[in-house]
């Protein structure tokens, strides 16, 4: 990514000081516990940040002795010089100009990260569209509140809808006042950081059009009694963590899940997608359009409900249940949870290791001497695994499943079954195109 935003051509497109609020971050000397970690030096040296706590935070009262202050506002130029996080409207809104037809986001962002977006090739692109027009509707469900439903058959890989988020905020909690973590217990310090995050979010929301704010405030909040604050509760209930929008200079790597550097994206329609451990929707953040793109991760039939997984799907039913509790989901009623057995738990927990094992075995199969066939039991075992994975709904995991399909093609070839190999290759083309599309949206292709 390019550096030197203030000196480049795009800086001129982004008027200095325009609708920008900066919250001053106070450097803190020492962490109160190892739950509070120093972020990479390329973000902000000496600033301590904290992972957003998972689940409920019990202590709801602000600690005695903490005096809330109104965050100070800096101009954008000052913020850039100090490399402080600012609240910006993106794409920029110039006075007297009509709003962007795809809407605007309020983004609590570190200066250098903002540069990554505005310097992205093609920025600001329009929000991508579904190829066949509006393909979803929001309806009430019997047990999950509102939900999003397909209004037509949608093939795997196709864009269902895309939207510009209302608020994008850092995953990590940072102090914005001169609070010293050493003066507080971890629980109290957590409360303060949550309170100060709410202050930032309130500043961001106060810049929105009234209708956008009203839609945001109407979203579900499963963190009402834990002191998260009304907007932060909504962000914690509905926000998507995006992996290609991150602070620091390091490039995004598939599988990197350290969430201190990432951002949480709050959508409007996307926030109405309910959870299932057998999801049919995946998402990718398109940096150049500053938008979240929702795609079918399997073929979806008209009237089917869209589902995203709020928990890790490679986990046992009881571990998934524990991850879902903060969302107020006490019992997931998806088929995987209802029909969970020790065998399905094992399948889920060992899924990625088995896929990887087949992948490395397939390399050795390539070395089989001419005339030697793969033992029939090996192929049968793979086919049993494939059948179990499809039944369990795990064939949606693109990061792993795409690794299995070529291994299976190799197994068929080495077992002397060329027509079955061709069928698998055709399947792989479908998955491969889908992965390519997703990587292109993320700007990685
Ligand atoms: C991101 S919102 C999804 C949209 C939400 N149903 C609404 O009406 O706005 C998340 C909330 O939806 C509900 N929810 C989502 N998936 C659910 C499920 N599988 N079972 C029960 N409730 C669910 C929970 O209340 C959860 O906190």
TrEMBL record:
<feature type="domain" description="SET">
    <location>
        <begin position="134"/>
        <end position="311"/>
    </location>
</feature>
<dbReference type="Pfam" id="PF00856">
    <property type="entry name" value="SET"/>
</dbReference>
<dbReference type="InterPro" id="IPR001214">
    <property type="entry name" value="SET_dom"/>
</dbReference>
<feature type="region of interest" description="Disordered">
    <location>
        <begin position="120"/>
        <end position="139"/>
    </location>
</feature>
<dbReference type="InterPro" id="IPR053185">
    <property type="entry name" value="SET_domain_protein"/>
</dbReference>
<protein>
    <recommendedName>
        <fullName>SET domain-containing protein</fullName>
    </recommendedName>
</protein>
<dbReference type="InterPro" id="IPR046341">
    <property type="entry name" value="SET_dom_sf"/>
</dbReference>
């Amino acid at each position: 990514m390019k550096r030197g935003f203030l000196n480049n051509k795009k800086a001129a497109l982004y008027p200095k000081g325009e609708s920008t609020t900066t919250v001053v971050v106070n450097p803190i000397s020492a962490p109160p516990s190892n739950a509070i970690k120093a972020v990479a030096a390329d973000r902000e040296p000496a600033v301590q940040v904290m992972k957003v706590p998972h689940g409920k935070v019990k202590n709801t009262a602000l600690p005695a002795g903490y005096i809330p202050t109104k965050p100070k506002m800096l101009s954008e130029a000052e913020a850039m010089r100090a490399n402080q996080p600012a609240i910006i409207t993106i794409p920029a809104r110039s006075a007297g100009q009509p709003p962007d037809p795809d809407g605007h986001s309020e983004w609590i962002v570190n200066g250098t990260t903002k540069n990554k977006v505005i310097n992205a090739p093609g920025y600001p692109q329009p929000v991508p569209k579904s190829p066949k027009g509006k393909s979803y509707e929001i309806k009430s469900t019997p047990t999950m509140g509102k939900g999003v439903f397909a209004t037509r058959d949608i093939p795997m890989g196709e864009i269902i809808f895309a939207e510009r988020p209302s608020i994008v905020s850092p995953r990590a909690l940072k102090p914005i006042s001169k609070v010293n973590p050493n003066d507080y217990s971890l629980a109290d310090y957590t409360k303060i950081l949550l309170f100060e995050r709410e202050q930032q979010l309130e500043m961001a929301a106060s810049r929105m059009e009234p209708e956008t704010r009203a839609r945001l405030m109407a979203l579900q909040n499963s963190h009402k009694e834990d002191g998260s604050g009304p907007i932060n509760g909504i962000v914690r209930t509905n926000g998507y963590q995006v992996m290609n929008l991150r602070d620091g200079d390091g490039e995004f790597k598939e599988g990197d899940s350290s969430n201190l550097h990432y951002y949480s994206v709050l959508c409007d329609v996307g926030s109405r997608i309910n959870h299932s451990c057998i999801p049919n929707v995946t998402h990718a953040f398109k940096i150049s359009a500053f938008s979240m793109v929702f795609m079918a991760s399997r073929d979806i039939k008209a009237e089917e409900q869209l589902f995203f997984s709020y928990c890790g799907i490679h986990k046992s039913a009881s571990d998934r249940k524990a991850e879902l509790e903060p969302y107020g989901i006490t019992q997931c009623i998806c088929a995987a949870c209802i029909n969970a057995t020790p065998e399905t738990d094992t399948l889920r927990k060992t899924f990625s290791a088995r896929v990887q094992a087949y992948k490395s075995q397939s390399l050795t199969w390539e070395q089989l001497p001419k005339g030697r066939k793969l033992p029939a039991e090996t192929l049968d075992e793979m086919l049993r695994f494939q059948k179990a994975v499809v039944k369990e709904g795990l064939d949606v995991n693109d990061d792993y499943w795409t690794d299995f399909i070529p291994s299976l093609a190799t197994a068929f070839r080495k077992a002397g079954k060329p027509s079955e190999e061709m069928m698998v290759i055709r399947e792989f083309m479908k998955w491969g195109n889908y992965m390519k599309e997703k990587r292109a949206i993320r700007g990685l292709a």
